[in-house]
TrEMBL record, chain A:
<dbReference type="InterPro" id="IPR032694">
    <property type="entry name" value="CopC/D"/>
</dbReference>
<dbReference type="GO" id="GO:0006825">
    <property type="term" value="P:copper ion transport"/>
</dbReference>
<feature type="transmembrane region" description="Helical">
    <location>
        <begin position="153"/>
        <end position="177"/>
    </location>
</feature>
<dbReference type="InterPro" id="IPR008457">
    <property type="entry name" value="Cu-R_CopD_dom"/>
</dbReference>
<feature type="transmembrane region" description="Helical">
    <location>
        <begin position="72"/>
        <end position="90"/>
    </location>
</feature>
<dbReference type="Pfam" id="PF05425">
    <property type="entry name" value="CopD"/>
</dbReference>
<keyword id="KW-1133">Transmembrane helix</keyword>
<protein>
    <submittedName>
        <fullName>Putative copper resistance protein D</fullName>
    </submittedName>
</protein>
<feature type="transmembrane region" description="Helical">
    <location>
        <begin position="189"/>
        <end position="210"/>
    </location>
</feature>
TrEMBL record, chain B:
<dbReference type="InterPro" id="IPR014755">
    <property type="entry name" value="Cu-Rt/internalin_Ig-like"/>
</dbReference>
<dbReference type="GO" id="GO:0030313">
    <property type="term" value="C:cell envelope"/>
</dbReference>
<feature type="domain" description="CopC">
    <location>
        <begin position="25"/>
        <end position="118"/>
    </location>
</feature>
<feature type="region of interest" description="Disordered">
    <location>
        <begin position="211"/>
        <end position="246"/>
    </location>
</feature>
<feature type="compositionally biased region" description="Low complexity">
    <location>
        <begin position="212"/>
        <end position="229"/>
    </location>
</feature>
<feature type="signal peptide">
    <location>
        <begin position="1"/>
        <end position="24"/>
    </location>
</feature>
<dbReference type="GO" id="GO:0005507">
    <property type="term" value="F:copper ion binding"/>
</dbReference>
<keyword id="KW-0472">Membrane</keyword>
<keyword id="KW-0812">Transmembrane</keyword>
Length: 357, 246
């Protein structure tokens, strides 16, 4: 839809197009976002059942509220963070050359990024409370017990830092809402990525000389998956109805997504397998099939394997049509891919909590 | 796109220097008695050994008999990678379950159980309702006894001692606080959050104060696009900073 002519007809047509698209866009946001959340929560709950602490005589374990609430809140934290990253990336993907066309979308992205950042911060602080409750089974968490948890345990500190960075994201996002794209997109992306850095601390690594390389691999994994999922989410929700913008944005994102796919697969395999290999008492390759950790790792590999054909379909079948501004089923394919990514996030949350041995 | 990749590259490079230390999940590497052991004589204590130091606090270690009664005595003691609990004289012969839940060095709880079988009934009964922290109460009674004897010796010395203890307590608290970054950090974060809230409110108020502009925004880009085609570059500049117009 070109805007360059000065006759009244094209803007009118554009208006109709947008008027039709507006409710549809709301529906799509619901379906795509709902797919991500539903996939993530479903996988996190299934994982919680899988790794449930078996009852041990005489040992107090947390009740079902913590057992199932913790993974759900934790995965919602991931989803919110992913949304912030994706919505922050969107202006870069849109480009700044044609604000007349990109600005309506960028404006919605900026507002949504602030909301998602608040959700991220909220989930982080609720997760801290749940994790404190997990260590004090049979008691209701008090401010004192939560404070003690945060001061004693690195995972609590990591979540607090991540939540605080999310608040900083909201602050920068609010500046962007107020002053538009004059707030550098790189700043927003940088702050959001910084908020992801403490996330791996909330999981576990191994105690070995390979600790630092594995940590870097984990960080790359977290950032790569957030950029990939978040970028696709932002595009599917905000751009699927805008063929003109999609034609410009999707090819750019496609390159980023390819990079992310490679990064996420390699770093995930390195992290998962080396963590297992370096844990005492774990025999590879047998433990992959016998331990919960190994099975969860296999589930993630299977989900990535499922993502590849979906991504390839969008990249090789749909992209040429999208670039030619033809109608495509991009939204449906992207929505499916995002739901699978949601499942992977749910499994990931389980993996960070599962015993390795 | 190139700038984006540059940002990603810079962040990744920063990582190489600032990778935070996630800690490992503790794994049980050994125990005394061993898992599945068959014993003729009841052990006096149970020791679990992990691959790395266990964090103090949040530790549970229990011994449950075939009669369902509990036989551990007192709170478990953590010494490096070892967690030890004293065991009361065991009761009937049969399978005993050692249950544990410790705080792994990565901050996750690690739960598990081991079993051993007692072939000959011991003379003991269950340790009735394990006392929550006998070590602590022992210490307290020791201190009380000490204080009492001091009291007998000289009042001045006792008060000195009390002051000394108080000082030690305070310095321990200070050390802990400085280790944790103290409450100052929390206050700082709360202050930051409040400033943000204030900022959000200001923005919301301003947007509400300009409803005309807001509705134009809500109608989508119909007007924007139309006016852009007519007014060209000036409007383009405006739309780049939509909230800054009025």
């Amino acid at each position: 839809m070109s805007v360059s002519t000065s006759s009244p007809a094209p803007p009118d047509r554009g208006g109709e197009h947008l008027a039709e698209a507006a409710p549809a866009a709301g529906d799509r946001a619901l379906w795509v976002g709902g797919g991500l959340v539903a996939g993530a929560v479903a996988a996190a709950l299934a994982g919680a059942v899988l790794i449930a602490e078996e009852p041990v005589p005489g040992i107090a374990v947390p009740g079902p509220i913590v057992e199932f609430g913790l993974p759900v809140v934790r995965v919602l934290l991931d989803v919110a963070a992913v949304a912030v990253i994706g919505l922050s990336l969107l202006p870069k993907l849109l480009g700044f050359d044609d604000p007349a066309r990109t600005e309506p979308v960028a404006r919605r992205a900026r507002a949504a990024a602030v909301t998602a950042a608040w959700a991220w911060a909220g989930c982080a602080f609720v997760t801290v409370v749940f994790q404190a409750a997990e260590l004090n089974p049979g008691t209701v968490p008090t401010p004192a017990s939560v404070a003690a948890y945060v001061s004693d345990v690195g995972a609590g500190q990591g979540l607090v830092i991540s939540g605080a960075t999310a608040l900083a994201c909201a602050a920068v996002g609010l500046l962007a809402v107020r002053f538009g794209e004059s707030v550098p997109a790189e700043l927003r992306i940088g702050v959001a990525l910084f908020g992801l850095l403490p996330i791996p601390v909330t999981g576990h690594a191994v105690d070995s000389v390979w600790h630092d390389p594995i940590m870097i691999s984990m960080e790359l994994h977290v950032m790569g998956s957030a950029a990939w999922t978040g970028g696709l989410l932002a595009i599917a929700v905000l751009l699927a109805a805008r063929r003109d913008l999609l034609a410009a944005v999707l090819p750019r994102f496609s390159r980023l997504a390819t990079l992310c796919l490679v990064l996420v697969s390699v770093s995930g395999l390195v992290t998962g397998l080396s963590t297992m290999a370096l844990t005492p008492g774990v025999e590879l390759p047998g433990a992959i099939l016998t331990s919960d950790y190994g099975l969860l790792l296999l589930a993630k590999i299977a989900l990535v394997a499922l993502l590849v054909p979906l991504a390839a379909h969008i990249r090789f079948r749909l992209l040429p049509h999208v670039a030619a501004r033809r109608a495509t089923a991009f939204a449906a394919w992207a929505g499916t891919e995002i739901a699978v990514m949601g499942l992977a996030y749910g499994v990931a949350v389980t993996l960070t909590r599962a015993s390795i041995g | 796109m190139r700038r984006l990749l540059t940002v990603l590259a810079l962040v990744s490079a920063a990582l190489a220097f600032a990778a935070p230390a996630a800690l490992a999940h503790n794994v049980l590497t050994g125990s005394d008695p061993k898992d599945g052991a068959t014993l003729a004589e009841a052990p006096e204590r149970v020791t679990l050994t992990f691959d790395q130091p266990v964090r103090r606090g949040f530790t549970q270690l229990t011994v449950t008999g075939p009669d369902g009664a509990r036989y551990e005595q007192g709170a478990p003691e953590v010494d490096g990678p070892d967690v030890t609990a004293r065991v009361a004289p065991l009761g009937p012969a049969g399978e005993y379950v050692i249950g544990y839940r410790i705080l792994s060095s990565d901050g996750h709880p690690v739960t598990g159980k081991l079993t051993f079988t007692l072939t000959k009934a011991g003379g003991g009964g269950p340790s009735v309702a394990p006392t929550p922290a006998p070590a602590a109460s022992d210490g307290a009674s020791d201190a009380a006894a000490d204080a009492a004897s001091d009291d007998a010796a000289s009042d001045g010395a006792a008060s000195d001692r009390a002051a000394d203890a108080e000082r030690r307590e305070l310095s321990a608290q200070a050390a802990e606080a400085s280790q944790n970054g103290g409450a100052g950090m929390a206050v700082l974060w709360i202050a930051v959050a409040l400033v943000l809230l204030a900022g959000a409110t200001v923005v919301a108020m301003r947007r509400n104060a300009a409803p005309a502009q807001g509705s134009a925004t809500a109608q989508g880009s119909t007007t924007t696009q139309g006016s852009t085609t007519v007014d060209d570059s000036a409007t383009v500049q405006d739309t780049a900073t939509p909230a800054g117009k009025e």
